[in-house]
Amino acid sequence: MLSVYLGKMEEAVYYPPVYFDNRYEDKWITDKQSVEIIQDVDKSDVVSAHLIESPVLGPISPKELSGS
Description:
Elements: H1 16-21, H2 27-30, H3 32-42, E1 45-48, E2 51-54, E3 58-60
Antiparallel strand pairs: 1-2, 2-3
């Protein structure tokens, strides 16, 4: 669950894209459930941890998947 708080916090993540870029693991994309979600949401096929085949964009990296 995502919680949003206002104000400065010691353990807060202030810029999620950088946070997740530095913690990303290849197995997140190749996990069976992730592959199914990417297919359902983006209609794209996971080829490997670094390559996704999109019917609209062609070959893309996981960073280029839709974010919303």
